[in-house]
UniProtKB/TrEMBL annotation:
The keyword Secreted belongs to this UniProt entry's keyword annotation: no
Comp. bias (Low complexity): 38-75
Name of the molecule in the record: Limiting CO2-inducible protein B/C beta carbonyic anhydrase domain-containing protein
Keywords on record: Signal
Region (Disordered): 38-90
Compositional bias annotation for Gly residues: 76-85
Amino acid sequence: MAAARRCRAPRRGPGRGPGPALLALAGALAAAAARPAAWSASRGRAPRSGTGRVARAAKGGGAAAVQEGLAARRPGSGGRRGGGPSLQQVRPGQLEYDRQGGLFGAIANEMKADEARRTVVAVLGAALGGVFVGTLGQQYQIAQKAFRRFYISPPAERSMNAFFPTALLADDVNRAVSDVLGKRGYTSQNTLYAQSMCPDEINSKAQELVALMQGEWGEAFALGGLAGLPFAGKSGFEAFLHHTPVDGKILICFAPHVGINADGVVGSHLREGQVKSSTACGAAVGAFNAITKPGGGNSDNDLGLAYDAQEKYIVENLRPLLPGIEASQDKIAYVTYQTYNIARDLMLDTLKGIPDIYDWCDELAVVGGIMINRNKGGDFFQPLTFEAKSRDGVLTDLYQQAFGPRPELAQVLGSDAKAKQVLSPGGW
Ligand SMILES: [Zn+2]
């Protein structure tokens, strides 16, 4: 239902289309679309062509991404339908020129005036719809990458870059994983995908990682519980395993999450329709608060965990990882990385406990990291592991190929040992 809520028409006046600057910008985008290298993705990747798996998945229907784009095309919703300057009036090369502050300055002002970032990006996507070859979802991602600098919150961006230094936009992560695995023969037809994410609704926004990965691979088996830990366990994983296509492949993505609000506070997120930020991940921050509260006890009853099996597991496993937190740069960032450690260990222990995995698939790949929920500018993902193990027992580290150098985390976490614990190979 949250997706439907977000599909509402943008908050503009009835019948009012995008401002002249937005329409002129659409022209600039159209001109630049002929030169993909001009599109600087968050880590320098050019957009994928319209023939990729994302395009097929979006065409397949049902994706919230498509609905969101369609919402922007509704009459009065801001989609470009006549009026405004001709797209052909914008010259190639104008995009770079305008970055100096001319047209883009006007765009930035319009974006600042509109708090609904999705609305703005959807309007831009719809404006591009008539001229750019690609799906509505692709248009959304391209517009977001091009314009996020004009409407993000600088404190949030600074916090993210400080504590999650090589985080990537969700779309770039999805494409990087898909490109690397595509070269290893993974397709949406021969691959069964599972994800282990926290059930918090902020993780299921259209155009963010959960939706993008599911769209990329077609279906998703849900292994995750609170904080993104794979609480489905051995029984859940075996059920998933037995659904694998014959001689097929398995992809698993696991990721605890953390919000960063507009003030740059880690572990906090302003949710739609609310006026105050709340915790994200509530399960991880809640466990931390329960352990560290003044006079906090150790028994289940003292922590109120008697009927709270998943939270109890998080508390029990987080407690021994907290020594050392005082040397970290941010307590909740530290807690989030420890939650990642707990999720990874539970995931890999589960895999190690199933001896017949390769009777059901010929290769299994695991991507792990931390999802970062942002109020503006798109959600990010800090990759921390990406490995594949084949039926013949060969374990291949795919991290650098997909994401580049690993992040430097010693300062963030307060010691080399803590950084090593997060970044060490899983050894499964
Ligand atoms: Zn959560």
